[in-house]
Design a protein that fits this description.
With 525 residues, the protein is mostly helical. It is built from 27 helices and three strands. Helix 1 runs antiparallel to helix 9, helix 2 packs antiparallel against helix 3 and helix 3 runs antiparallel to helix 5. The longest helix is centred in the first third of the chain and has 38 residues.
Length: 525
């Protein structure tokens, strides 16, 4: 491997590690919800708020990240983000109350803009023929972080049942959820230190008029004979744009007629990516698995399969993206997403829930479980009806704290079909719109607009994500699993129809060649 390629891969890998921290932060909370809910006696809206907290933070952070990435540079902004992850992890682990924990989760949301900045930076130091793979490394790191979180949560849960001396010494049994959230401190600290190795983005240096420094950075990732060509092309890209660089002017240019196709594609991808419901499923993975009647331990164990599936199909996407192309993988993947969501909706829609005398006897450790005898002989056609009946008999707190056991003992459904549907959905997402959206966002905007455009459309995606995570506990309690998956599938279908018409192919093209191709497409439309 040449030194240029090695440097490009090294810098991209370090920056993409922010995705690993992001994945940990997003998924570690999934295992902690049960423990936090019991300790702070939370209702569904408060649980949703903890899932939603980072979403609020990212809404604040993305406009700031856009401004900071243009004023202070991509690298400096990434360092700030790494520091925020570290502070958030410390605050979450030692939070004494719901309000403090929510504040720490909000602070972590400020750091979620790392994904946006990573895609931007990597796209600016990557040669065209490697850009798809290198930008996709962020998504791979996200799913590695997610998978690591599910393994850590499962391991910690199993440790609580151990009589080992170290478990008692470390207080894992008493502070399980704090260990789950605190483990993020280590990778956040490592990432913060490694960011001192990467250079400033050459595109940003050109943007700031630092041409000699830009040449120094380009010399690390391109052969010397190609450097001047890259400098000249980037200069021309900036000179052709509106020289008024205020945020308002740049947004106006993004939505101008000459950028119409780009704006439609970016907006649709931003909405569709989160309208799949992916972050609701990942954030509340054990809760989703409990709906299959698996019980708490098995739900945590099955959540690991979500992580492993994410890793496998993200790697497959990375391998194929510069060979097959962005457009066919995106279109095929979204069709696959819709079909998978349909399978989940069908599986939950045909489920039945029955409480038996034998089941009640098996739950004798639950206080006042004999009260459930009044439900024996009754059949419930939806999980909502069953949960409401249990709540009336057992009370809100018992129904909430023992929900996984009650579902496990009463559900009559095709759990394998639903599990296959969920894993198929996870696979489809990470094969297509998950990583490919970030690749395309790093490619379809000119240098002069990228610092504002990528965070802006990431902001839209984050709004949808935050709303999805906030409402999911309420939806699960009031709509039922089948209706939720049908709702997600309908939204994705609308987005698919738009992308079939407007999405261009960008593989193996320089960013400047992509701009020329998009201008031709705009003229045709």
């Amino acid at each position: 491997m040449s030194s240029f390629k090695r440097n490009a891969f090294t810098y991209s890998t370090i920056v993409a590690l922010g995705g690993f921290v992001f994945g940990l932060d997003a998924a570690l909370i999934s295992g902690a919800f049960k423990f936090i809910t019991a300790e702070f006696n939370l209702n569904e809206w408060q649980v949703g708020a903890l899932g939603f907290g980072p979403g609020i933070g990212v809404l604040v952070a993305l406009p700031m990240a856009a401004w900071s990435s243009n004023k202070y540079g991509r690298r400096t902004t990434l360092k700030t983000i790494a520091a925020l992850y570290l502070i958030s992890a410390l605050g979450s682990a030692f939070a004494p109350s719901f309000a403090t924990l929510f504040a720490a989760r909000f602070l972590g949301g400020l750091a979620f803009s790392s994904i946006t900045l990573a895609a931007m930076y990597i796209g600016e130091v990557s040669p065209a023929q490697w850009r798809g793979k290198l930008v996709s490394m962020t998504q791979i790191n996200i799913v590695l972080g997610l998978t690591a979180a599910y393994f850590i949560n499962y391991w910690l849960l199993q440790s609580t049942n151990s009589n080992a001396e170290w478990v008692s010494a470390l207080g894992i049994r008493e502070y399980t959820w704090r260990w789950m959230l605190g483990i993020e401190i280590i990778p956040a600290l490592i990432w913060f230190g490694l960011l001192y190795i990467v250079p400033q983005s050459p595109a940003w240096l050109i943007y700031k008029g630092e041409f000699d420094k830009a040449r120094e950075t380009l010399a690390k990732v391109f052969p010397s004979e190609e450097i001047e060509d890259h400098v000249q092309v980037m200069k021309e890209s900036i000179e052709e744009s509106n020289q008024d660089r205020s945020i308002g002017t740049q947004l106006k240019e993004i939505f101008s007629k000459k950028m119409s196709v780009v704006a439609i594609v970016a907006l649709t991808m931003a909405i569709v990516q989160q309208s799949t419901g992916i972050n609701a499923v990942l954030t509340y993975a054990p809760t989703v698995m409990e709906q299959l009647g698996l019980g708490q331990n098995a739900a945590f164990e099955q959540a690991i399969w979500i992580g492993l599936t994410s890793v496998l199909f993200t790697i497959l996407s990375l391998v194929l993206i510069d060979k097959v192309g962005r457009r066919p993988m995106m279109i095929t993947g979204l069709v696959w997403v819709i079909l998978s969501l349909g399978v989940c909706a069908y599986g939950f829609g045909t489920a039945k829930y029955e409480m038996t005398t034998d089941a009640i006897a098996e739950m004798k450790d639950i206080p006042d479980v004999d009260k459930l005898s009044v439900l024996v002989g009754k059949q419930f056609s939806t999980d909502i009806e069953f949960k409401e009946a249990v709540k009336e008999v057992m009370g809100d707190i018992s129904a909430r704290d023992n929900s996984s056991v009650f579902l496990q003992k009463s559900a009559v459904l095709n759990a394998m079909l639903i599990l296959i549907g969920i894993l198929s959905f996870i696979a489809a997402f990470h094969f297509s719109v998950g990583p490919i959206m970030w690749v395309l966002l790093s490619e379809i905007f000119p240098i002069s607009l990228r610092g504002i455009a990528i965070p802006f459309f990431a902001l839209i995606s984050s709004v949808i994500s935050a709303l999805t995570q906030f409402f999911f506990p309420w939806q699960l309690a009031n709509m039922g699993a089948s209706s939720i998956f049908l709702f997600y599938g309908g939204l994705v279908f609308i987005g698919l129809a738009i992308l079939i018409k407007f999405l261009p192919e960008t593989k193996n093209l320089t960013i400047e060649e992509i701009q020329s191709k998009l201008r031709l497409k705009i003229n045709k439309n």
